[in-house]
Amino acid sequence: MEKGLVSVITPTYNCAKFIGETIESVQAQTYQQWEMIIVDDCSTDNTKEIVDKYIKEDSRIKYFCLENNSGAAVARTKAMELANGEYMAFLDSDDIWPEEKLKKQLAFMKKHDVAFSCTAYEQIDENGKVLNKIIKTVPKADYNRVLLDCPVGNSTVMYNVEKMGKFEVPNIRKRNDDALWLQMLKKEKYIYGMRSVLMKYRIRQNSISSNKFKVIKYHWILYRDIEHLSIARSVFHIAYWCVIKLLKIK
Questions:
Q1: What Pfam families does the entry give (predicted)?
Q2: Per-residue pLDDT averaged across 25-41, rounded?
Q3: Which of 40, 56, 212, 221 counts the highest number of beta carbons within 10 A?
Q4: CA proximity to 6, closest of 69, 89, 118, 125
Q5: What pTM, to 2 d.p., does this model score?
């Protein structure tokens, strides 16, 4: 484990259109002590060729391809296994960081002695156009708060590996990031949120999460099979989530 090093965890699948911009947002960071670990879930486009161009010029970028298409959870777990940093930060291969992201979040965590943190973020469309929608986080959230209505944006999260260790991402296709935060909150009581907007989240029409109501089955898997909640409590959480999404649509 290298002191001060931030390992950027980036699973990818068929993101050739976006991954160059994502990599460049890491390279532009004012905090330069980082490594970027990209794990490819057997992309069928030219993702590898694009990443290779960056690797030739920047040895901090590392690429690994899974043997079989296995989903983002497996790719993310593999990237975490390969990480060498004192900290890990998560960045999906179509999202973007502003240049002060790592510097500001590390300063926040050190100042407040925080091991697990996230930030606010804004939405952009597939072409990078700002949608004028900012997603706020909360000052702090525990296991039950995240279980109820997760206020955590995946590509905003950073945590101290030295204090919390490494984790295996629960292997479900959707909501595996939420499942990971829940695992981590069994070890660390709170995830602390920053008000600063330190990520741009890309809304893609063909993504697995673009139709919210197609992912209800993954909620059920998370609540029943991974978190082992009762049937009644699982039904409550799914109903609560559906109501919240309907209110947001309106």
A1: Glycos_transf_2
A2: 97
A3: 40
A4: 89
A5: 0.90
